[in-house]
Amino acid sequence: MEHADVSTASVAELAAVMGRYHTVISCVGFAAGPGTQRKLARSALAAGVPRFFPWQFGVDYDEIGRGSAQPLFDEQLDVRDLLRGQHTTEWVIVSTGMFTSFLFEPEFGVVDLPAGTVHALGSWDNQVTLTTPEDIGALTADIVFAEPRLRDTVVYLAGDTISYRELADIVERLRGSAVTRTLWTNDFLAEQLRQHPEDTMSKYRAVFARTKGVAWPKDHSYNAVRGITTTTAEEWARANLV
Question: How far apart are CA 123 and CA 201, in angstroms?
């Protein structure tokens, strides 16, 4: 068992820990605060770790680009630049889309089960890719040992990819009754962000109203190509919300 405080430890201290391992998989997410992802990447490179999986279990940051509504995404691009700018440490980035549970999170505001309301972000046709943490863990382990070996690449997972219209249909089937469907336009979401620039959920809602970078076809995903079964949005909802 190793112990280190990623918030206070220096790059050298973290490198000393990482350097004892062949493969390092970061499970330290955004909650650790700004700068953490860069620090962990620098530590892995300083240690000369042979293989590094950074915390990139989310959207396609390359496609979204810099300057999005969520500034933490720019740090993810910094990490990619660090990894792509060297040739000592192999790296694998695992893109998963949104955690499935987050789509149904009351604070996120897209699904309001008690009120029987579903909000679409940007358009009813906009899509979002979703993967459960359990599937992310199992698929990441599969990727670690995949043959031929995966190196210096982005791997796309997709537990499910659905539109906000399909989401509303799922919630209706879940409730056994119709839901109120309300569109939050990009202009509306931009205004909400302008009024509440530090609100995390306003940032995420603006990002997930995009048409690029937040969804990709499930049938092109690592799990689908390899025939690995994953939990769909409806399956998750029925198991956790009914």
Answer: 18
Nearest to 182 by CA among 197, 194, 166, 165: 165
Q: How far apart are CA 140 and CA 223, in angstroms?
A: 10
Residue with tokens 């220096």: 10
190-218 residue pLDDT tens:
999 999 999 999 999 999 999 999 999 99
pTM to 2 decimals? Answer: 0.95
CA dist 116 → 111, 167, 204, 205, 242 (Å): 8, 12, 22, 19, 14
Torsion from C-alpha of 198, 199, 204, 209, nearest 10 degrees: -100
Type of residue numbered 107: E
228 touches 142 (CB < 8 A): yes
Task: Give the number of other Cβ atoms within 10 Å of residue 234's Cβ.
Answer: 17
